[in-house]
Specification:
Blueprint (H helix, E strand, L loop, with lengths): L20 E9 L3 H4 L2 H15 L3 E8 L5 E7 L2 E8 L4 E9 L5 H11 L4 E9 L1
Antiparallel strand pairs: 1-5, 1-6, 2-3, 3-4, 4-5
Helix pairs in contact: 2-3
Length: about 130
C-alpha cells in the first residue's frame, strides 16, 4: 500500500536516534518594495544573516521573477534557508531550518529585518526532534 512508506509522528516515539533542530519561520510586512526586488541586496542580506546565525553556507540559488519578486534558497551545512519576496504586497516570507542547537535564529531575524526595512514581522520557532 502507498502509505506504508510514510513515517507518521506516532511512529517516531520509539525512534532509535536523537535529533534536535529548529525551524524558524518569519513573515515580514511593510517592507521597502525596491529592497524586495533587488537581487544583489537580498543575496548579501541572506549571506550576512546566515553568517550571523552561526550557520555555514554551502550554496545558493536565486530566481528573479518577471515582473517582480525574488526567491532565494540557501543550502547550509545545518540544513537550509529560504526567502520569498512579494514587492507588490510589501511582504517577504522566510524560513531557516537548522540541525543542532548552536545556530541563532534571533541573529538571523535581526539581520534580515534590518536589511528588508521591515516595519512589522511575525515569527515563530518550531523545535524539531
Amino acid at each position: 500500500m502507498f502509505f506504508n512508506s510514510f513515517i507518521f509522528a506516532d511512529d517516531l516515539q520509539d525512534k532509535d536516534f536523537e535529533f534536535v533542530g529548529r525551524h524558524f519561520i518569519a513573515s515580514y510586512y511593510d517592507c521597502d518594495p525596491k529592497v524586495l526586488d533587488h537581487v544583489k541586496h537580498l543575496k548579501e542580506a541572506l549571506c550576512k544573516a546566515i553568517e550571523e546565525s552561526g550557520a555555514s553556507l554551502l550554496n545558493m540559488t536565486v530566481h528573479k521573477f518577471n515582473p517582480h519578486g525574488v526567491t532565494l534558497v540557501a543550502l547550509l551545512s545545518e540544513s537550509h534557508a529560504t526567502i520569498h519576496t512579494y514587492p507588490e504586497h510589501r511582504a517577504c516570507f522566510v524560513d531557516l531550518f537548522t540541525c543542532g542547537t548552536t545556530c541563532s535564529s534571533e541573529n538571523f531575524h535581526r539581520v534580515l529585518s534590518e536589511a528588508l526595512l521591515a516595519k512589522n514581522s511575525k515569527t515563530m520557532v518550531l523545535n524539531r526532534e
